[in-house]
Amino acid sequence: MAGFELVGVHDSGTVPAGATTLPTAALSSVSLSPTAVVGGSTSQGTVQLTSAAPSGGAVVALSSSNTSAAGVPASVSVAAGGTSATFTITTNAVSTATTVTIAGTYNAVTRNPSLTVSPAGGGGGGPLAAPSLTSPASDARFSPGQNITFDWTDVSGAASYTIQIDDADTFPAPQIVNQNATASTYSTSTLPTKRMWWRVRANDAAGNPAAWSAVRRFEVKS
Which phi and psi angles does 23 have, rounded to 5°? Predict the structure, then answer.
């Protein structure tokens, strides 16, 4: 009809020029720290979103593939405008090492890292065994500055080892060497020129030490 003009009418399916659409937040990752624990210990989980949580927050659903070994809350909430939140994983004693999948789901996206739950003291649920010393042999002799490799047997369930070297077979503190190692070997070329003794013990994933090995004597001599 002449003399009339429609103003401000837009098609409902069209975004006005210059308007900005905010990205929809999705689940970016679920991380665990630590990823391996002894049964009865806890681990912390963190959910991370790809962008800020919407008004009202974001509720990430959580689940465990083996609730008898590791339990999680039903969900964890990321506050509005935030991008991450943490939750606690509780574990129970196990008789053998158990891998548990911890799943987080939000906006149809699932992330599922793994947590290893180990028995206290190793595979049999008892204390770790003492390692057996392999080399050097008893009363071995070395030249000053010579690289010496100390080797011992692997211990089932051990997460690390502690080696001590001292000039007294009672190992009073401080020792010449008091060193942690992840492998069942240790090398050094900086030992003093004297008669010394060495011993090793295993540690579990929680850092609990086992019994010391037997003691061996050796000498660095000019």
Answer: -65, 145
Same-domain check for residues 37 and 87: yes
Question: Is the whole-model pTM more than 0.90?
Answer: no
- How many domains does the chain contain in total? 2
Q: How many helices (H) and strands (E) does the chain have?
A: 0, 18
Kindly state whether residues 95 and 156 are assigned to the same domain: no
What is the per-residue pLDDT across 124-180, written as a single tens digit (0 to 9) for each? Answer: 445 678 899 999 999 999 999 999 999 999 988 888 999 999 999 999 999 999 999
Q: Which residue type is seen at 121? A: G
Size of the chain in residues: 222
Q: How wide is the angle at C-alpha 178 spanned by C-alphas 174 and 183, nearest 5°?
A: 175
For 99, the domain range is 27-118
